[in-house]
C-alpha cells in the first residue's frame, strides 16, 4: 500500500507493509506543485516510483489539506486553493488503475494515532495538527468522526477574535491565525512592531516579511529572549483553542502533531502550563492528557495508507 500526505510545501509518499501497516518499506517526497494538474502528476510519479520497488501497489490513500464532501472532492481549501473541485482520488485511480481513497489530511493523521499511537490506550482523542494552518481529527468512542457532510474537524477556523487578522478562509480571527506556523510568524511581526523583538528583526536583516515560524523556533532554541517571549504567547493561543475543544468534546487526550510538533518540550510544556488558566477544561478528573504525537511527520501518510487498507 502507498499512503500520500499532500502538504502545503511538500508531498510525502510512503510504501507500507500490507500485513503490518505501521512498517514503512520505503518513502519518497517532492515539492508540492501549485496547480491541480501538476499535483496529480506529482502524486502519480511518487506512487510509480515506489511501485517499482515491489512490482505492484494494491491500494493508494491520499490525505489532503482540504474540507471534503461525501464525494471526497474538496469544496474548500483555504491554504491550498488548487484542490477545490479537483477529484484527486478519481484522477489518480484512473491513471494508475489502482484503488484510491482520499480523506482530509488531519483525519488521516488521527487514524494513524488511533491505530499506531496514543489511540491504542484511549477511546476518545482529538488530534490537532499545527502547520501552515491548523487541522483536526476527531476520534470518539474508538471511531473516526467525519460529521454529517464529511468535513468535521476544522478547529483552525473557529473564531477566537472577531477583530483579529484576516484568515484565507475569509473570516477574521480564526484560531489558526494565532496558533499555526504562519500565526507564529505573525505574532513575531507584531512583537517587532511593538518594539519587543529587535533580535528577531536583526536576524532577518530588518525585513519583517522574511520572518517565519521556523526562524522564531530556531532563535528560541538558542535562548533568544524575544523569540522565547513570542513562543510563550504562541503557546497561550494554542492552549486557548485546546481548552475550547476539551470543553466541547471532553476527550481523554489531545494529541498535537503537524509541522510545529518538532518544537517538542519547548511547546508542549508551555501549552500544558497555559491550559491550567482555563479551569472548566483543566480541572477535569481524570485530567485530559495533552501530548505530542510520537509518529512524527509520517503520521498523515501512515494514516492515509491505513484508510486505504480499510477501504479495500
What does this structure look like?
- Helix content is 40%, strand content 19%.
- It has 312 residues and is an alpha/beta fold.
- It has two domains: 2-111 and 297-311, ATPase, nucleotide binding domain (Nucleotidyltransferase, domain 5, 2-Layer Sandwich); 123-293, ATPase, nucleotide binding domain (Nucleotidyltransferase, domain 5, 2-Layer Sandwich).
- The longest helix is centred in the C-terminal third of the chain and has 25 residues, at 225-249.
- The radius of gyration is 19 Å and the shape is globular.
- The model has no long low-confidence stretch (mean pLDDT 92).
Highlighted features:
single chain; 312 residues; alpha/beta; Nucleotidyltransferase, domain 5; 2 domains; five-stranded mixed beta sheet; 19% strand
Note the topology.
Elements: E1 2-6, E2 10-16, E3 24-31, H1 36-54, E4 60-64, E5 67-68, E6 74-76, H2 88-96, E7 100-104, H3 105-116, E8 125-130, E9 134-140, E10 143-145, H4 176-179, H5 181-193, H6 198-203, H7 213-221, H8 225-249, E11 253-257, H9 265-275, H10 279-282, E12 289-292, H11 299-311
Parallel strand pairs: 1-4, 4-7, 8-11, 11-12
Antiparallel strand pairs: 1-2, 2-3, 5-6, 8-9, 9-10
- What percent of the residues sit in helical stretches (DSSP H or I)? 40-55%
- Any idea what the CATH architecture of the largest domain is? 2-Layer Sandwich
The secondary-structure class comes to alpha/beta
Number of distinct beta strands: 12
Which stretches are low in confidence, meaning pLDDT under 50 for 5 or more residues running?
Answer: none
Amino acid at each position: 500500500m502507498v499512503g500520500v500526505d499532500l502538504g502545503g510545501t511538500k508531498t510525502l509518499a510512503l510504501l507500507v507493509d500490507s500485513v503490518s501497516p505501521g512498517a514503512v518499506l520505503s518513502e519518497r517526497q517532492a515539492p508540492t506543485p501549485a496547480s491541480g494538474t501538476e499535483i496529480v502528476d506529482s502524486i502519480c510519479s511518487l506512487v510509480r516510483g515506489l511501485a517499482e520497488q515491489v512490482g505492484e501497489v494494491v491500494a493508494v490513500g491520499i490525505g489532503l489539506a482540504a474540507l471534503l464532501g461525501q464525494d471526497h472532492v474538496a469544496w474548500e481549501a483555504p491554504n491550498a486553493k488548487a484542490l477545490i473541485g479537483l477529484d484527486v482520488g478519481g484522477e489518480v485511480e484512473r491513471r494508475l488503475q489502482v484503488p484510491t481513497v482520499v480523506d482530509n489530511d488531519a483525519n488521516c493523521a488521527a487514524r494513524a494515532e488511533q491505530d499506531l499511537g496514543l489511540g491504542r490506550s484511549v477511546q476518545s482523542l482529538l488530534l490537532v495538527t499545527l502547520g501552515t494552518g491548523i487541522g483536526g481529527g476527531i476520534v470518539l468512542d474508538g471511531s473516526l468522526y467525519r460529521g454529517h457532510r464529511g468535513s468535521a474537524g476544522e478547529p483552525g477556523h473557529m473564531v477566537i477574535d472577531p477583530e483579529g487578522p484576516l484568515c484565507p478562509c475569509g473570516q477574521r480571527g480564526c484560531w489558526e491565525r494565532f496558533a499555526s506556523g504562519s500565526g507564529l510568524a505573525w505574532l513575531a511581526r507584531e512583537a517587532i512592531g511593538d518594539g519587543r523583538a529587535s533580535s528577531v528583526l536583526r536576524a532577518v536583516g530588518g525585513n519583517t516579511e522574511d520572518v517565519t515560524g521556523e526562524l522564531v523556533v530556531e532563535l528560541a532554541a538558542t535562548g533568544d529572549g524575544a523569540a522565547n517571549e513570542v513562543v510563550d504567547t504562541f503557546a497561550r493561543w494554542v492552549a486557548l483553542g485546546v481548552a475550547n475543544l476539551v470543553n466541547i468534546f471532553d476527550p481523554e487526550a489531545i494529541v498535537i502533531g503537524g509541522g510545529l510538533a518538532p518544537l517538542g518540550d519547548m511547546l508542549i510544556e508551555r501549552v500544558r502550563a497555559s491550559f491550567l488558566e482555563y479551569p472548566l477544561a483543566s480541572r477535569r478528573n481524570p485530567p485530559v492528557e495533552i501530548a505530542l504525537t510520537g509518529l512524527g511527520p509520517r503520521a498523515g501518510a501512515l494514516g492515509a495508507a491505513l484508510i486505504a487498507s480499510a477501504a479495500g
